[in-house]
Automatic annotation (TrEMBL):
It comes from the Eukaryota. It comes from Eragrostis curvula (weeping love grass). InterPro entries: DUF4220 (IPR025315), DUF594 (IPR007658). Residues 48-400 form the DUF4220 domain. This is DUF4220 domain-containing protein. The keyword Membrane applies.
Length: 707
């Protein structure tokens, strides 16, 4: 019975054993490293390596076992038989853990390739299985693991398909023919019939949009403060706002509903608002990068039960099997594969039970109220981990141009890069650092608090007035300066000329990247200004916000320009010209960083704009130094209040212009602050994500007049 094996091949037993253990080790690494990448950018290289290696190692092992089948029945060894039993474990490993199916968004678009791969791997495994039929005493156990492997690989392929753009849009319900408005058709029929009956009928069009929006907001609000209601509120909002991540629009009813929810609740502060935003992004991450589209469904639970039952049954069968004639090393590896598969399955189940999806499912089921209360207490004890990195990357143009990093880590990697002559390859390690938004958990998040305050005030003030919103949030420093016009123009202090000099340097700039470079250099030069006396609380807060956002926005321009919609080519020319000009002034300086920046400020401002600068240069160094000189003429507190407000304005402007599909790509790198800001603005009705040309929720009503 079965296929006749081919000619015996050279012994590859050791390679097969190593490949099987390596494949299992990669699965263990991925199940725990996968969730870490949404909270940190640190494990990116490790996850990427494991993600690529796991498929490669499994394919190599499958090929080695296929090649080894010719040794069945030769030399009195049972190794080829046990290898045939190991084959379906490779299908299981190719299915991957629940915590990672795609490394990037682009992997989801390759779901068809994975489907073809599934058929090919299944065909190869079937050949091995049939070759071993005539002498394989563990056929039932092999079939059980085959079932598990096929299920796991199919789950991964379906999850990749679900995360693709076309499938994501189809799940939202925007593909397919539009159904006619049944309410309108019914009303028109009644109108015509009553008119034919001789009645005086009038049709009144009512805007039910506001009522529906308020009703939906109140439904969410009723859950406020109930454990674990925050996840349920976030999930309801996610079902509405997920369409933004495939660059679709929301209607005006959804806009009013979200605004009502975020503006009318007493307990809605910056912390609660951003926690809801983080939870929504966490749901999105799970839908795009993990097996959540399968795992959290009824079919997913059934398949999980089947897989767990098959693994346990196989373990029992092998435990009871007569293992005489099987090498001890092969017995140990088989136990490792079985126990490893069971442990991975149990770990995935534990992660599933303590996930935000599970809390939503329990909260929706009224039959499990007692379980909801128990789960709420457990979640308080096992506090949910953060959903993003809570840190921002920093890149400083002056340090980059000077060639001297700001951290000890940067100096170390600079030495390594110099020795290896690979400075450009290690540039991110040298000049990019990550800093937390707050040093301690108990500290206030000044940046998020200020963003929430600014966005909420704008939403309360302008509502649905898109023209006014665009005017306020299209500023790149000038609107923020306008808020301090009264203070700067104070005749007892600086006067009107000072304000005009500062504003004059800002309003003449048209391109966003030029504004960003100008304010970044000015902020860096103001950072080392000599201060007399202890700083005030406003000064410290303003300094923290200004410096952090300055280096963060510079990082986005340099490393993630697609998030800022920067004009391709122009920003890069301007950046390199500015660096080259700064380098000419700083190359020979050997003093401290602060002294170097002060000397740069003095040296540049002593020149006229035309001197020492190529005619075709795009550098903004001179204008930035003049702006810094004028800002340093203000007192320390006002200077940093101005700079912090300017950078908040630039951040909000950039967030408003960034498309949703770009934000999805950052979720597997620890997330970005600009993503949270963009999503918050969308919830408060301030983003460019609403189709205001269509009015949703319009209802018609018949009015019958007495004759």
């Amino acid at each position: 019975m079965g296929f006749q094996p081919w000619v015996p091949q050279q012994d590859t037993n050791t390679e097969i054993r190593v490949a099987m253990l390596l494949s299992l080790s990669l699965q263990i690494a991925l199940i725990f490293l996968g969730p870490m990448r949404k909270r940190s950018s640190f494990p990116r290289v490790i996850v990427w390596s494991c993600y690529l290696l796991t498929d490669w190692v499994a394919d190599i092992a499958l090929g080695l076992i296929l090649n080894n089948m010719g040794n069945i029945g030769s030399g009195g060894t049972s190794s080829p038989i046990i290898f045939a039993f190991w084959t379906p474990f490779l299908l299981l490993h190719l299915g991957g853990p629940d915590t990672i199916t795609a490394y990037s968004v682009e992997d989801n678009e390759l779901w068809l390739r994975h489907l073809i791969g599934l058929l090919f791997e299944l065909f190869s495994a079937a050949i091995i299985f049939f070759c071993s039929l005539h002498s394989n005493p563990m056929i039932p156990a092999t079939v059980l693991i085959f079932i598990v492997g096929i299920i796991k690989y199919s789950e991964r392929t379906y999850s990749l398909y679900s995360g693709s753009i076309r499938s994501f849009r189809a799940n939202i319900g925007i593909i397919g023919p539009k159904n006619p408005d049944d309410n309108y058709v019914t009303i028109m029929r009644q109108f015509n019939s009553k008119k034919k009956a001789g009645l005086v009928v009038e049709m009144a069009i009512l805007d039910g949009e506001a009522a529906k929006a308020r009703e939906h907001a109140n439904r969410l609000g009723e859950l406020w403060g109930l454990p674990p209601s925050l996840s349920l509120q976030a999930y309801d909002l996610f079902l509405i706002f997920r369409r933004l991540f495939v660059d679709l629009f929301l209607n005006s009813e959804q806009r009013r509903m979200s605004r009502a929810f975020f503006l009318e609740h007493v307990g809605m502060n910056a912390s609660a608002a951003f926690e809801i935003i983080e939870l929504e992004l966490n749901f999105l991450y799970d839908m795009v990068y993990t097996k959540a589209p399968v795992a959290h469904t009824r079919a997913g639970w059934i398949l999980r039960s089947i897989c767990s039952g098959c693994i346990i049954s196989t373990l029992v069968i092998f435990f009871l099997h007569d293992k005489r004639g099987i090498k001890r090393v092969d017995v140990r590896i088989t136990y490792a594969l079985l126990l490893g598969a069971l442990a991975l399955d149990m770990a995935a189940l534990a992660m599933l039970l303590f996930s935000d999806h599970m809390s939503v499912s329990l909260r929706r089921s009224r039959r499990f109220n007692w379980l909801v209360r128990v789960a709420a207490k457990l979640l308080l004890l096992l506090r949910r981990k953060r959903c993003w990195s809570e840190s921002v990357a920093q890149f400083n143009l002056i340090s980059y141009a000077w060639g001297r990093p700001q951290t000890y880590k940067g100096h170390f990697f600079l030495s390594v890069a110099t020795m290896l002559r690979a400075k450009e390859a290690l540039e991110d390690l040298i000049f990019v650092q990550h800093v937390p938004l707050r040093r301690e958990r108990w500290e206030p998040e000044h940046i998020l608090d200020r963003v929430f305050l600014l966005v909420r005030k704008a939403s309360e003030r302008y509502g649905d007035k898109d023209d006014a919103i665009a005017m306020v949030f299209n500023g790149r420093g000038d609107v923020a300066l306008g808020r301090f016009e009264k203070h700067i123009k104070d005749p007892k202090r600086w006067g009107e000329k000072k304000f005009e000099l500062i504003m004059g340097r800002v309003v003449k700039i048209k391109d966003f990247d030029e504004s960003l470079l100008l304010w970044h250099i000015a902020t860096e030069l103001c950072r080392f200004r000599q201060v007399y006396g202890p700083p005030t609380e406003k000064t410290v807060t303003g300094h923290h916000i200004g410096v952090t956002l300055s280096d963060y926005m510079m990082y986005l321009l340099m490393k993630q320009p697609e998030m800022l919609s920067a004009k391709s080519g122009f920003w890069l020319m301007r950046f390199h010209d500015t660096c080259a000009e700064a380098r000419r002034f700083m190359d020979s300086w050997i003093g401290s960083p602060g002294e170097a920046r002060l000397s740069l400020l003095e040296a540049v401002t002593s020149y006229k704009p035309e001197e020492g600068k190529d005619y075709e240069s795009k550098s903004v160094l001179f204008d930035a130094c003049i702006l810094a000189k004028e800002l340093q003429g203000l007192d320390d507190e006002l200077m940093w209040m101005v700079l912090s407000e300017v950078w908040l304005e630039i951040l909000i402007y950039a967030a408003r212009k960034c498309p949703g599909s770009t934000h999805v790509r950052q979720l597997n790198r620890g997330g970005e602050l600009i993503t949270l800001v963009w999503f918050l603005m969308a919830h408060l009705g301030l983003g460019d994500v609403y189709d205001t040309t269509k009015v949703a929720g319009t209802m018609a009503k018949l009015i019958i007049h007495d004759q």
